[in-house]
Amino acid sequence: MSYQKGTQCVQGGYTPGNGEPRQIPIIQSTTFKYATSEDMGKLFDLEASGYFYTRLQNPTNDYVAAKIAELEGGTAAILTSSGQAASFFAVFNICSQGDHVVSSSTIYGGTYNLFAVTMKRMGIDFTFVSPDCSDEELNAAFRENTKAVFGETIANPALKVLDIERFAKAAHAHGVPLIVDNTFATPVNCRPFEWGADIVTHSTTKYMDGHGAGVGGCIVDSGKFDWMAHAEKFPGLCTPDDSYHGITYAEKFGQGGAFITKCTAQLMRDFGSIQSPQNAFILNLGLESLHVRMKRHCENGQAVAEFLSGHEKVTWVKYSGLPGDEDYALAQKYLPNGGCGVVSFGVKGGRKAAENFMKHLKLAAIETHVADARTCCLHPASATHRQMNDEELAAAGVSPDLVRFSCGLEDAADLIADLDQALAQI
Ligand SMILES: *Cc1c(COP(=O)(O)O)cnc(C)c1O
Questions:
Q1: What CATH number is attached to the domain comprising 260?
Q2: Domains in the chain: how many in total?
Q3: For a tag on the chain, would you pick the N or C end, based on fewer CB atoms within 10 A?
Q4: What is the pTM of this model?
């Protein structure tokens, strides 16, 4: 039977047997012992499942990945060393030199750089479209060699909400999967598979870990995309892999297992971007309270957004939980129980005033981080985007006055009082 999300957060992925540890054991071992070479040979041939080397797979990671797969409603998952590794693997698993991807333009800056610079250098082309583009514009972005569509449920830091159903329909009409980075919403607030997404990625560094303790990522497969029906587009999944004695992943592991098995057997083997079992254990501690924490992050986000939108020294507020927000209708559809705790807003007086305001914050720490138990905030124009002039900032969708405020788990009244006193001093 399938449990509710809260129960899955606490108990999913790992069921100890009689006399076994109640908490997920940290298997701190690089390697695993076998009685015969034949036994091990079967693992190398993917004839049997088991562990042989932690660069590819580790039991601790697999328990935690299974929990996230359950939460997302997927068939298989893999933990990666970071969110960046998850985004890279999710795309590179089905794209190679000469291929093309359609991506939302309002994605995380690190992902944008990975796609537009590093993967472009590997011969993979990206077309970026606004999440608000018309159906005509979206369809026009596809090419013969397009292999995937990519977007974020709630974009970091633009906080745009993706119309997942619309993007999934367009992807499927062109015979390719939709990959959704679900970092900010988490499966507690949105399950993209229910709206047609095929692959989900996470930076587990954010709400899933939730305590600013461990960098990590995750990829989950819905098992719903029929690779064999589009075999000519996905030769990596649908034709024999010479590095595994001619196994065809989509045949041998089926629709529900092919994507993650290939990701493990090829990409982890060759790139080794695996999460350490220690970090997977820490991630699981975060997951055990994710459903409780997300509720509080969202309550604080809503309270702070409402306070800021009525303040005379604030020129604009972006939070999809505000009834006047451009994405309010989308949020009501995809995020009925709340989105996330991150709020963006503009300080009256522009770049200088925003810098000045930040100086006066006492509780909110200035950090290049979001989605932490402790409230943190960032003025991109004087930090991550400081090389850019006002014109370049506008093109990147980051205005000079923008402050990104990530509400933690503190009491909303204290966060509001901190904002209030800092705004009063500018
Ligand atoms: C932080 C982040 C990433 C990158 O994750 P890391 O764990 O920092 O590598 C990817 N996507 C989103 C939406 C993020 O916020």
A1: 3.40.640.10
A2: 2
A3: N
A4: 0.97
